[in-house]
Amino acid sequence: MKEAIPPLGLRMEFREKLFAWKKKQRNELINIIVEEVISSNVTLRAHDFPVLINEIVGIFPNEKAVEEYYFIPRNGRKNPSGKLYAKYKNRRSKKHKLTIADTENNDSDKLSSTEHFRSNSALVSEVDKSTLLAFKTYLSRDSSNWNEVRDKWKLTYGIRQQDLNEMESIDFLKSWPKLSDSRAPELVNDYQN
Prior knowledge:
The protein is 70% helix and 0% strand. The chain is mainly α.
């Protein structure tokens, strides 16, 4: 169709690019919401999502037309769906797995540094890229819970290494502002133990 009617094809390409941009923005919004909910230890149930979607629509009225992108309530035997719902469920599941693994590590004898690194690497591989980017965003904000900062710091090791290789020193320090915190030596010491 794009080839048959060139002006229509241009409009279709523009619409596709516009939709992709909006999709990207929606996914960023979903990441921000899910990270905030998870870091605040808030548990959402299926009946909470319509209220959350109404808040999104209240702030971004144009999203009314695509509410189902975020959440699709289901009746009967089917589970709810939608990008926000799925992201929240997956992220909550990963957090639960990390909590269980952390508890098991604390209960067992101390691991050698190599075993500790392998254990953390296995856990990090379970955490997807968008979650790690959300952690990086969290670490760039002020945080009163230093234990949570330390946990997220450990999980973002791979991203920091990548940034260190790709960025100038000043840009790296700006990208990881916790390094200028007075407690930053604790973050470095976590890898030496």
